[in-house]
Amino acid sequence: MIRAENVDILADHSLLLAIPAFLPAVALVGLVLFIAMRDRRAEKRENEGAETESARTDRSEENP
C-alpha cells in the first residue's frame, strides 16, 4: 500500500454502515433458533408423556 504524504485517514465507516444490514438478520436467526429449540423440547415432553401413558395401558391390560 502506497501512502501519500499529508493524507490522514480519520475513520472508516463501512462497518458502521453494515451494522444496520446485519442486525435484523442476526436477530431473525436467533428468533428461529429459539422457536426451533422450544418446539423440540415440547415434542420431547409429548413423546415422553405418550410413552408413559402407553406403558400404563399395557400394564393394565396384562392384569385383569
Largest sheet: none
Instruction: State the secondary-structure class.
Output: mainly alpha
Order of helices and strands: H
Low-confidence stretches: none
Q: What is the residue-mean pLDDT, rounded to a whole number?
A: 81
The percent range for helix content is over 70%
The Rg value, from CA coordinates, equals: 29 Å
Characterize the overall form: rod-shaped
Helix count from the secondary structure assignment: 1
State the separation between the terminal residues, measured CA to CA: 89 Å
**How many β-strand stretches?**
0
Determine the strand fraction and express it as a percent band.
under 5%
What does this 3D model show about the protein?
The protein has 64 residues and is mostly helical. It is 77% helix and 0% strand. It is built from 1 helix and no strands. The protein is rod-shaped and about 90 Å long. The N and C termini lie far apart (89 Å). The model has no long low-confidence stretch (mean pLDDT 81).
Give the tags.
mainly alpha
Q: Helices, strands, pairings?
A:
Elements: H1 14-62
